[in-house]
Amino acid sequence: MVINFDDVHTTMGRSLRLRCPACGNASIIDRPFHIRHHCPSCWSLFKREEGFFVGAILANVVITELVILAVWFIWLIVGGSQYEGVLVALFLLALTFPVAFYHHSWSLWLGFDYLVESLPIHVERPRQ
Predict the structure, then answer these.
(1) Is residue 126 assigned to a domain?
(2) Per residue in 53-96, pLDDT tens?
(3) CA–CA separation, 62 vs 59, rounded Å?
(4) Does residue 122 sit within a domain?
(5) Domain boundaries, position 9
(6) Per the confidence metrics, is the pTM higher than 0.85?
(7) Nearest Cα to 39, choosing from 51, 29, 53?
């Protein structure tokens, strides 16, 4: 399997801008904290079977933990202040960062899924 780094760079760039990883034309966000069902431009399906969302949750948790660790290490090296102050700041960061990173975790997960297996196309079913 050959990895095309230009495709990876393009897809991750689209994901960081919260755009469709397949075409880059439309936003993946319908409204705050609501991801579109599919891309209105290329019809790539964003919300798939039950359990697909677990990957986005995993991305959010792992990146939140890495950010908390990075802030803690920097605080210890640079600040070296009281331990209680560090705990309060990290607690507030742990509460706010996952909420602020929600859309990006979804977008990065969609981008990763697109690179691994492509996104299925949404097919509308006729109404009965």
Answers:
(1) no
(2) 898 999 999 999 999 999 988 888 887 667 777 888 899 999 99
(3) 5
(4) no
(5) 5-117
(6) no
(7) 29
Q: What is the pLDDT confidence band of residue 9, given thresholds at 50, 70 and 90?
A: very high
What total of structural domains would you count in the chain?
Answer: 1
Q: Which pair of tokens denotes residue 95? A: 């509460």
Angle of CA points 77, 58, 115, to nearest 5° = 105
C-alpha span between 64 and 70 (Å, rounded): 10
Structural domain includes residue 128: no
Instruction: Estimate the crossing angle of helix 83-100 against helix 102-117, to 10 degrees.
Output: 60
DSSP one-letter code for 47: S
Length of the chain: 128
pLDDT above 70 covers a percentage of the chain that reads: 94
